[in-house]
Amino acid sequence: MYNKKMQYVIKTCSSDNTQELQNLLNEMSMNNWELYSMQEVETDEGVLCHCIFMKESELNSGNTNADVMNISSFKSQMEKMLSQAQSPYDICLEIQGKIREQKEKIANIKAELEGEAPASVGRKKLNDKISAGLKALEELKLSLAKATSPDEMYSKLKEEKLSIHLSEEILNHAYNEQDSLEEELVAETVKLRLKLTEELGYVLPKIIFQDDVNLNPYEFSIKIRGLEVFKTTVYPNYVMYYSDAIHLEKKIKNSITDIDKITGKKIIWIETCKTKDFWEQGISCSEYIAKALEYVAVKYVDDLLTYDELDKYVDIVAESNRFLVENIIPDFISLSDLRFILTSLIREKISVKDIVYIFEKINDFAEDSSKSDLLKKIRLSLSRQICKKNANEDGIITAIEMSEKTLDKFNPNFDESDDAIIRIDADFAEKLAEKLKQKIHQLELDNPKLFVPMEFRHLIFTLLSNYMNDITVLSREEIGCNAQIEIITEI
């Protein structure tokens, strides 16, 4: 067998219908197909049985049956079949095909029946076959009715909150001897979930990993609620370095240069085997995907932190002090306002881990305060945390400050009430961001900080974060006497 060219075919039937399975095995055996393997797969339509049959390839047969494939491409196609659910359209076509086949079988049996004597044993067997065939036909019709029912579509009314899509080249690449790429990715996401919980009090939601044939070689993308928010290229068995961190005198053979989509810096991917003597710690393929996931999870926290997660924060506070919850919600603050406050803090990497303390501050300030005012007051209460995060080892916050002239151009008649509609010239905003980027590049700032008046702070951060991924916007009132401020230039 091993010296002969073989051909393979895949057939599918319901695992619960033993008669259908038996008929399939008999039919394939009559056509000289041998059972190669059998795999049960759970789907939305129940448990399906995927049977793989094989036989010696027929020379010059000219058979172009789509189910027959070359052994070299069999594995990847089989993996796709087992990992991807059929679409409702495909299911409908498959059932309709089975109905046609079943009707033909019944018609053939009826034709045989006409030649049998009225009381013969053969006629009784054929009648039994017709009864079984009609029963199977009725089951197929019920399955078709279910597949075409509009009720089935309601189960489709959802999108995965957070998913990572990987190209086939990433998944199929031979990785290191210790772990597969999939294992490393799972480990990195667990590590990231712990990091975000400890540092920000933010629990990363469930992550779905999927292969995506539409991606270019070695690309991966991250989607939130079905929409792509991040896409770039990574290389298994390579290590990523920032170009300005390793200062290479000449290009290393097989290295790959690129631009980091998160920081905008130049990066270089170098084969792992060539980095053993490097002092600088690089970033592996799976670590970079986790880094991108962290960036996306924080940037789009407003899309990820749902009311279900919000209830969990409320439950934690209720376990410690039920009075706080009952006194605040919904009399002084709605769940939507609470969600706005928590997502606004997390979005600017301010920890909400001490959620009971934040609720205490909400209780102190909530009466007669808009959600924007409430956010300002809570940030003032978290001044020490903000200073610790942004100050250097000497307790100094080095930053750029927005000039009065720029503020006048920004919005001279600014009103930040909850119902206000704020209109900002897009050209001005883009020019401001570009000018700020140039200043940051000239001063070689890694973690740029910008000081603005408190009443402008949240709006300016929201504006600039559309153009810059690593900007921190602060107000002098938030710092107080908890740190020294060093202004290096104005903009």
Explain this structure.
The protein folds into five domains: 6-85, Alpha-Beta Plaits, CATH 3.30.70; 89-156; 162-302, 3-Layer(aba) Sandwich (Glutaredoxin), CATH 3.40.30.60; 305-381, Helicase, Ruva Protein, domain 3 (Orthogonal Bundle); 395-490, Rossmann fold (3-Layer(aba) Sandwich). Helices cover 47% and strands 18% of the residues. The protein has 19 helices and 16 strands. The chain has helices at residues 18-30, 74-83, 88-113, 121-148, 168-172, 181-200, 243-246, 285-299, 301-304, 307-320, 322-328, 335-347, 355-365, 371-381, 383-390, 404-410, 426-443, 454-464, 476-479; strands spanning 6-14, 34-43, 46-56, 68-69, 162-166, 208-211, 219-224, 227-233, 238-242, 256-259, 266-271, 283-284, 396-401, 449-451, 472-474, 484-490. The chain has a four-stranded antiparallel beta sheet, with helices on one face. A four-stranded mixed beta sheet has the order 6-5-7-8. Strands 10-11-9-12 form a four-stranded antiparallel beta sheet. β2 and β3 (46-56) form a beta hairpin.
- Structural class from helices and strands? alpha/beta
Strand content: 15-25%
Which word captures the global form?
elongated
Q: How many discrete domains?
A: 5
Distance between the termini: 77 Å
Main β-sheet, spatial strand arrangement: 2-3-1-4
Please mark out the parts with pLDDT under 50 across 5 or more consecutive residues, or reply none.
59-83, 174-178
Helix content: 40-55%
CATH topology of the largest domain: Glutaredoxin
Architecture of the largest domain, CATH level 2? 3-Layer(aba) Sandwich
CATH class group of the largest domain: Alpha Beta
Most strands sheet: 4 strands, antiparallel
Alpha carbon gyration radius: 32 Å
Question: Helical stretch count?
Answer: 19
Q: What's the pLDDT, averaged over the residues?
A: 83
Number of strands: 16
